[in-house]
């Protein structure tokens, strides 16, 4: 049963309640390896389901356009102060609805249409909003893109520097969505300084690792930091902008009134809860375990002949080309989902295939680590994945269903917040 229980919903809208119960059960029974997903605590879930969703509060604490902010103001201040303390920054804005709006606010604060901006290309592991051509950020700005080296699968800092010197961007994004290696914030900062650009670190994927001391922090290197709150950070779906004092006002103005209306106060409260959890010593253990699990899983997959981009991982994420196993990313992901192993198909750098039918798989360990799985279980997951791919190649659905039963049996011993 979903936890907290949803008896009122079940009575008022049984059809919807059933769908929610079904999703909770699905999350309980699957090895959830989508690198950007997690399980939030029951406390975070409770905060998102409160009456704070009823309240409008355009503006910022002490300067609102609606009355009745006696409780909303302290909620937002709590979230802001916890974010500042956790990451060690001068300023935090907790209102962006999600990662893409947060990044758009940075553009609005710093640059004008037509200005040159630089980021990592989407096929190399960047994000749409780092200037990719189908995004507003690639259409409205003159975006130049760096990638990774073909031989190492890693960012080539010489290429980044050469591109920056040639193109003189006003803003450089580092970070992305499919980068299995440590981001060298000091090296990016040096390049940004050389060309007089503002360095923006998008740490959406690794924010929990940064907060938990399992990835170097961009603070002191990037003037602006953007992050979602629901990936490794393990909060509700939302985002934050963190910055030095110099950029605080411009970012706040860009979020509201520049881009957004009223903040989602129930989300703000849940962000505050998640930040409180991330400040506890146990969160450091979780962050270290996420990385240890990813390394162990990467090793076990490589030993089974999976072709890992960059040869392994330093963080929570693994990217691999599965075409050497005789299958493309999409059919592999679909077979794995049937086997109870949930991940996403993904392009790999220099992928000859199309994004909707690419060569690779992206997977990560935040959710299974929260669930309590450890390094000892990683070889078993790799074995299931290998067996599933073989079964898919043989068209053997019965073998895949047998794996799903084994997966559910293992997971039954690991409690899940949100399900009881
Ligand atoms: N959807 C996010 C991810 O999965 O990485 C990026 O926006």
From TrEMBL:
GO cellular component, one term: cytosol
A GO term for molecular function: methyltransferase activity
Chief location bin: cytoplasm
All copies of domain Serine hydroxymethyltransferase-like, residue ranges: 9-385
GO biological process: glycine biosynthetic process from serine; methylation; tetrahydrofolate interconversion
InterPro entries in the cross-refs: PyrdxlP-dep_Trfase, PyrdxlP-dep_Trfase_major, PyrdxlP-dep_Trfase_small, Ser_HO-MeTrfase, Ser_HO-MeTrfase-like, Ser_HO-MeTrfase_PLP_BS, SHMT-like_dom
Name by which UniProt lists this protein: Serine hydroxymethyltransferase
Organism in which the protein naturally occurs: Actinophytocola xanthii
């Amino acid at each position: 049963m979903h936890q907290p229980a949803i008896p009122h919903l079940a009575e008022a809208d049984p059809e919807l309640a059933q769908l929610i119960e079904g999703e909770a059960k699905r999350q309980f029974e699957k090895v959830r390896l989508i690198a950007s997903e997690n399980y939030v605590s029951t406390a975070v879930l409770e905060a998102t389901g409160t009456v704070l969703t009823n309240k409008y509060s355009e503006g910022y604490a002490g300067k609102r356009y609606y009355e009745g902010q006696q409780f909303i103001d302290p909620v937002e201040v709590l979230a802001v102060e916890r974010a500042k303390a956790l990451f060690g920054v001068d300023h935090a804005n907790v209102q962006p609805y999600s990662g893409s709006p947060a990044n758009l606010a940075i553009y609005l604060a710093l640059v004008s249409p037509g200005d040159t901006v630089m980021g990592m290309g989407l096929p190399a592991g960047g994000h749409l909003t780092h200037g990719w051509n189908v995004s507003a950020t690639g259409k409205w700005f003159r975006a130049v893109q760096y990638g990774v080296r073909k031989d190492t699968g890693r960012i080539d800092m010489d290429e980044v520097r050469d591109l920056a010197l040639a193109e003189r961007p006003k803003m450089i994004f580092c970070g992305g969505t499919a980068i299995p290696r440590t981001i060298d914030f000091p090296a990016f900062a040096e390049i940004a300084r050389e060309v007089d650009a503002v360095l923006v670190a998008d740490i959406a994927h690794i924010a929990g690792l940064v907060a938990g001391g399992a990835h170097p922090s961009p603070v002191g290197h990037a003037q602006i930091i953007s992050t979602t709150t629901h990936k490794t950070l393990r909060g509700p779906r939302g985002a934050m902008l963190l910055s030095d004092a110099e950029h605080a006002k411009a970012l706040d103005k860009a979020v509201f009134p520049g881009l957004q209306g009223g903040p989602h106060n129930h989300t703000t409260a849940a962000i505050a809860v998640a930040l409180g959890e991330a400040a506890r010593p146990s969160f450091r253990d979780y962050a270290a375990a996420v990385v240890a699990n990813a390394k162990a899983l990467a090793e076990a997959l490589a030993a089974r002949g999976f072709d890992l981009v960059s040869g392994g991982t330093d963080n929570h994420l693994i990217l691999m080309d599965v075409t050497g196993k005789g299958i493309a990313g999409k059919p592999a992901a679909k077979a794995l989902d049937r086997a109870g192993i949930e991940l996403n198909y993904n392009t790999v750098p220099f992928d000859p295939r199309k994004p909707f039918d690419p060569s690779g798989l992206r997977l990560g360990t935040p959710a299974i680590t929260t669930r309590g799985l450890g390094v000892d279980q990683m070889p078993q997951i790799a074995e299931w994945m290998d067996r599933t791919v073989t079964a898919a190649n043989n068209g053997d659905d019965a073998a895949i269903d047998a794996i799903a039963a084994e997966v559910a049996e293992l997971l039954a011993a690991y409690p899940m917040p949100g399900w009881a």
